[in-house]
């Protein structure tokens, strides 16, 4: 009886400990290069399951190619998502597989060829899949091994894939789906110093060609190179906060092999709080705003996510 109770308490402790990290990894990956995700490469024991629902409200300006037909654009966009994630033992390394189904609602206003115009869009976005693996400082661990784990320096890699499953109509200039595949390889570094931790990631979004863009033309886009830095502080078990910043560059597009002036050179700053409210239940709050934006969304954003974690069979 004593051993059974001890194992039950250990399982509950592990679930509570990893819930916050998993919630951060999977709840805000629907915004492309603008993502701010602290604790994305913090390892967890294999066999942990996680589901979440999240909402991210964005309000601000949209900066398009100055030579294009859209000007003075503003938007209110709500990006919600349902997520499932599971931790794995992948070749004796800690790994996490994630699937995200987003749903977006947006109201956009601006000038189209000099005339006032407004559009409303709602529907499913492109399906997001991610596989992350810890290469250094993140060996595969059982729940009991993880309970004694004392992280210091960790290095991980990941691959994120966006499938062209979102709502798309080539007769519309503004769509929810992108009608193309996207791939983001990334490397992440984590260093823990007592209650403090620093996360740093470097990656790049690579895109296939959208051969059925607005009006039936072909649209290609150069890679978007991105970086993130996060400074986290652990107040107590289950409660921590992070200061977030990122920078991304690139993404120039060509339409039927004709280029435009749409180089992205943007940055965001933000603040995140993760709170273990009760047992396996977790809440995440996040706010961010554009530090500078050349092309793209210069948004003020507020996000809220709820997650539930449970320990299954390894």
Please explain how this structure is put together.
The mean pLDDT is 86. The chain has helices spanning 2-27, 143-147, and strands at 48-63, 70-90, 93-112, 115-124, 128-136, 153-162, 182-193, 196-207, 219-221, 224-236, 239-250, 253-255, 258-259, 264-278, 281-292, 296-311. A hairpin with a 2-residue loop joins β12 and β13. The chain is built from two helices and 16 strands. 10% of the residues lie in helices and 59% in strands. It has a single domain (2-311), classed as monomeric porin ompg (Porin), CATH 2.40.160. The protein is mainly beta.
Strand order of the largest sheet: 1-2-3-5-6-7-8-10-11-14-15-16
Q: Give the count of structural domains.
A: 1
Which CATH architecture is right?
Beta Barrel
CATH fourth-tier homologous superfamily = monomeric porin ompg
Quickly name the level 1 CATH class.
Mainly Beta
Give a count of the beta strands, DSSP E runs of length 2 or more: 16
Provide the structure class: mainly beta
What form results from the Cα inertia axes? elongated
Rounded to the nearest angstrom, the radius of gyration is 20 Å
Query: How many helical elements?
Result: 2
CATH topology: Porin
Describe the sheet with the most strands.
Answer: 12 strands, antiparallel, barrel
Order of helices and strands: HEEEEEHEEEEEEEEEEE
In terms of DSSP E residues, the strand content is over 45%
In round numbers, the mean pLDDT is 86
**Terminus-to-terminus distance:** 23 Å
Helicity level:
under 10%
